[in-house]
Amino acid sequence: MTTAAHYDLILSRCRELFLAKTHDYGTAWRILRLPSVTDQIFIKANRIRTIQETGVQRVADGVDEEFVAIINYCLIALMQLRLPAAAPLDLPAAEVAAAYDHENALNRELLQAKNHDYGEAWRQMRVSSITDLILMKLHRVKQLENLGGAALVSESVEGSYRDMLNYAVFALILGEEAAASQKPV
Fold it and tell me: How far apart are the first and last CA of the chain?
């Protein structure tokens, strides 16, 4: 399966879960300020790293579910970045689905461009290294948030969310491919 096809498959599962949760909870995520979304992503990435380092998992949600959560929280962050401050807390489901699809489409384009330029180098990486990259991006985002978003030479917060989303997709692809071939990640 091509990377693009695998991306589409993973994101369709993420979208299905996100829209089901939107049905159940509405757009409660709108309450979260961007630094709070960043912290939610950190919680997920830190849990993944803890499980990877200790080999022990005491809560039922697996590592794959945490990568899915990272994807959806990154999309929440990207949607929040675009919404005006005065946007209502409760958004219609159709509007949320359209915003999700818009951000996903932009992200897919970025993935295709970077995948071309980097020659799919991520396929040679360990999932634990991808987790570390997500945590590093989170540290950068927190620093930028602490600076009020004013970067001198660094990529934007938006770019970091997009990279983290793609890293989480890569981790899921590697995990699925390893499971299919029975090789360790």
Answer: 18
Q: How far apart are CA 178 and CA 185, in angstroms?
A: 6
Q: List, for residues 25-36, the tens digit of each pLDDT value.
A: 999 999 999 999
Q: What whole-number distance in Å separates Cα of residue 139 and Cα of residue 3?
A: 27
Measure the CA–CA gap between 100 and 11, rounded to whole angstroms: 10
Three-state secondary structure along 98-145? HHHHHHHHHHHHHHHHHHHHHCCHHHHCCHHHHHHHHHHHHHHHHHHH
Locate the domains of the chain by residue range: 3-181
| Total-model pTM | 0.95
5-9, 41-45, 84-88, 163-167: least confidently modelled range? 84-88
With 0-12 CB in 10 A as exposed, 13-18 as middle and 19+ as buried, what is 74? buried
